[in-house]
Amino acid sequence: MYLSVINFFVLTVTAVLGDGVRYPEQNLCPSYYQCHNISLCPGVVQQWNNGYPPTICGWDKDIPSVCCITLSSLVKVPNEDSRSRNTEMRPIRLSSISQTGCGRREYIPPPSDAYIGGFDSLYKWSWLAAIFAGDSSTQLCGATVIDDRHILTAAHCFDGRSLNPQDYSIRIGEVDISKTNTSYEIQEIKLHEDYTPRYHYNDIAIIRLAQPVGKDAVCILEEDILQDGDLLTGLGWGRLSFGGRSTTILQVASGIPVVGNEDCNTKYQRVSNAAVPYGISDDFICAGLEEGGLDACQGDSGGPLVYEFAYEQWALMGIVSFGHKCGEPGFPGVYTRVSSFLPWIKQYIQNQRQSESFRRRPTYVE
Fold it and tell me: Which residues form the signal peptide (predicted)?
């Protein structure tokens, strides 16, 4: 379960929460937004009234600070704190896998005059998937829908397990996985050819669904645009702490800063880690706070690490792979870098589409 998950609110939150909830000191705002007292952001209040809740990024006593666009946040001004926001315009191209309008999330009205701690009660991420053991309620891993037939997850989710599609089922776009909802059958589970269960290199797998699903997909970018300090978001249903209890309610951790691979490699050299005997390669993304507390945990494996590259539009950048315990100070989480495997992903999807097209050709009998 993602640690230090963000508790969400209605605008009467100050009366409900009092001094009981405080947000992390890091800025949780995406690119070109700034964290301001809500009284300085009248447009945010109007958006809330129209059904679009703001993101809390801090507190001043009992008054929330929220992410809002200001003139100063649209100007490219270097920032001493690289975690606070991304300040450079970067060319962004969607890959051929993605369609216009990908990577959206669906607003869910909150309960009246209340808040729900520990999960994002205000949004449904319709491209977020969960892998289950057969038809049971045992959730094994997270995953992400990338088109109408294909889902990405971690190869290590199947360590010591069968690759028989009938042994698993997929559920998509859920918040509370304890509720019985539609399950989707799997046609094939494809692990990366160079993945070895002993290690976490090439820790990626594609799941092909038996039938197309009418679900939204996450965006896949053509190039990796991430820079150190960029803020990412993780989602999952794993444990709340290392070796701790699980929850069936979706957890969302925002504001996870990217950590450079060289720095990340140095950190992991301090511990004996058989998962990456050759170090943290460029095929990984590291992300986490130096002080710890924002991280994936057991059960989040295979789930997405996403980046808000445009307003309310999210791209899949990483897949939960491994870490040192959960949220441990000095040890960022380590994720499979999706862009490193984009040619492999494209080739698999292309092969499947060609194969299906061939099977659909009419047979002529003379």
Answer: 1-18
